[in-house]
Amino acid sequence: MDVYLPIANLSVNGLWIVALGLVTGLLSGLFGVGGGFLTTPLLIFYGVPPTVAAASASTQVTGASVSGVLAHSKRAGVDYRMGGVMVVGGMIGAGIGSLLFRWLRAMGQIDVVISALYVILLGSIGMMMAREAIRALRGKSSGSVAKRRRHHPLVASLPMRWRFYRSGLYISPLAPLILGILVGILTMLMGVGGGFILVPAMLYILGMSANVVVGTSLFNILFVTIATTMMHSLTTRAVDIVLVGLLLIGSVTGAQMGTQVASKVKPEILRLILASIVLAIALRMFFGLFVQPDEIYTVAPL
Question: Rounded to an integer, what distance in angstroms lies between the CA atom of residue 12 and that of residue 48?
Fold first, then answer.
């Protein structure tokens, strides 16, 4: 079933795109990540231009996040106060990211920057999560995990502390605000929800309770991707609504399925699976940076 994408200016297999959306939604419900870290590279591998892939993936992540947040909210798995602070930071970061996106696009370097960011971020985070998951499965980290759940010393040194009751924290709101800004920038540049960075940071830097991390991450991703979609639509005009629609068909269903599975599987196994996926994508993106494309062309401004 071939479908024409007007913004990307190519035809794609509609069923393949729907299946990709299903996988994205499944990851969203399982791990609290928006799934854009997987969607954007796979769309690029398929032949979708990186700018269109990044902009459209961030739009599709919104739909998957709505479904995931509703499911986790029913189990009191969302810290709305913590999420609200991160959302404010995410809005600021999205604005900064929009300026960077336009500048890099004007320089003709946006495609290379997107790929390089994926290699660096996915590679480092994937290795960290894999190491932690393997240690936990071997039974060597029961004491160290409990210790790591305490927030980072830099977070403890920040002024103006608030109580975040659902997360079990008494820390400065500046910490989640700065984290939100970083995620907002990455969402705008890479088309990701930022959950693959947000979830480990919430656990190991902020020290949040594990039972609210996934839901709070999705809550933040939801609002940041909404802002990112609006900015992309108004500035870069790279959002392909047909592509987004196909992805959403699968992702909304997948998010509900992932939430159900997440409650029945050991967290260590889930982290190891996620780490393996992240590292595989990073290696593929790294390989792509050094391989000459089949079709070489340049885009010049009118």
Answer: 9
Do 57 and 192 touch, CB atoms closer than 8 A? Answer: yes
* Residue pair 275/126 in contact by the 8 Å Cβ criterion: yes
Is the pLDDT reported for residue 72 higher than 60? yes
Alpha-carbon distance values, 205 to 129, 137, 163, 273, 292 (Å)? 14, 22, 16, 22, 39
Question: CA angle at residue 59 from 238 to 49, to 5 degrees?
Answer: 35
Per-residue pLDDT of 208-255, as tens digits, reads: 877 788 788 888 878 877 877 777 777 767 778 888 888 878 777 777
Query: CA torsion angle for 220, 223, 227, 230 (degrees, to 10)?
Result: 140
Residue identified by tokens 């959403």 is 248
The radius of gyration of the chain from alpha carbons, rounded to an integer in Å, stands at 19
Cβ 189 vs Cβ 113: under 8 Å? yes
- CA 11, CA 2: separation in Å to the nearest integer? 6
DSSP 236: I
Tokens standing for residue 147: 């210790």
Confidence of residue 147 (pLDDT cuts 50, 70, 90): very low
Q: Return contacts of 294-300, CB within 8 angstroms, 24+ apart.
A: 299/108
Residue % of the chain over a pLDDT of 90: 0
Q: What is the pLDDT of residue 18?
A: 85
Tally DSSP H helices, then E strands, for the chain: 12, 4
